């Protein structure tokens, strides 16, 4: 059924070149890969809006620029060592004009103090909003950009867009907002913002166009994701859906408590 049935009906010589699966929540990234393999003439399988294709130049990374590359098939590759590769599980569009996502890392890495199943069920999310191009002086002219909102505790995407005007977030910067909706002064580090009661952050990022719309099917990113999916599927087969839901809820609670403890420790240290 679904994508598998589509590839079986069409056959490997199909003239179909593009498929748009954006917001098709009952399709998986694994099925997308199978579709590409069984329809070798397929040039594009889209799983996200075109405005989110590209290399996001983030304000993170300290002395080096950390870039997050998102492909049209919703796979991603970040320029950091751990928790840097994987795919977007699903994307939801909200009536107020923003999107929320859920990521699955294929290289979670070692995280001391977290449950062993964390590598499979830690699925962080952010909220995103497409912005009008910014006109910049110089030869490059307009700059594609997006706003990205994140919660500072837990790992879920914010359910509502933070109460900060778009123009209050400069390109290449992050601003912090308290639970009461107060916008903190610009230029704060994460620790200082937490100490002042920040619960959410919003960043404006330039989006550099992709050179290719999808990673190569036989390349290292897709190969790693496929291997991880096989491992995750084998692990999950030992548990009922209800048990997996309980484990994910346990992980959520653990991460929220961990964030509170970290914030308290930072507050005690700064005091």
What secondary-structure arrangement, pairings included, does this model have?
Elements: H1 2-10, E1 18-20, H2 29-38, E2 44-46, E3 54-57, E4 67-70, E5 75-78, E6 85-93, E7 99-105, H3 118-121, E8 127-130, E9 134-135, E10 142-143, E11 145-151, E12 174-178, H4 190-195, E13 198-208, H5 220-236, H6 241-270
Parallel strand pairs: 1-2
Antiparallel strand pairs: 3-4, 3-13, 4-5, 5-6, 6-7, 7-8, 8-11, 9-10, 11-13, 12-13
Helix pairs in contact: 1-2
Description of the molecule:
The chain has about 270 residues and is α+β, with helices and mostly antiparallel strands. The protein is about 30% helix and about 25% strand. The protein is built from 6 helices and 13 strands. Strands 3-4-5-6-7-8-11-13 form an 8-stranded antiparallel beta barrel. Strand 9 (about 135) and strand 10 form a beta hairpin.
- General shape: globular
Q: Secondary-structure element order, as H and E?
A: HEHEEEEEEHEEEEEHEHH
Please give the count of helices: 6
β-strand amount: 15-25%
Number of strands: 13
Please tell me the overall pLDDT: 88
- Spatial strand order of the main sheet: 3-4-5-6-7-8-11-13
Low-confidence stretches: 260-271
Q: Which class do the helix and strand fractions yield?
A: alpha+beta
Q: Kindly provide the radius of gyration, computed on alpha-carbon positions and rounded to a whole number of angstroms.
A: 20 Å
Largest sheet descriptor: 8 strands, antiparallel, barrel
Terminal CA distance: 60 Å
How would you describe the oligomerization state of the chains in this entry?
A: single chain
- Fraction of helical residues: 25-40%
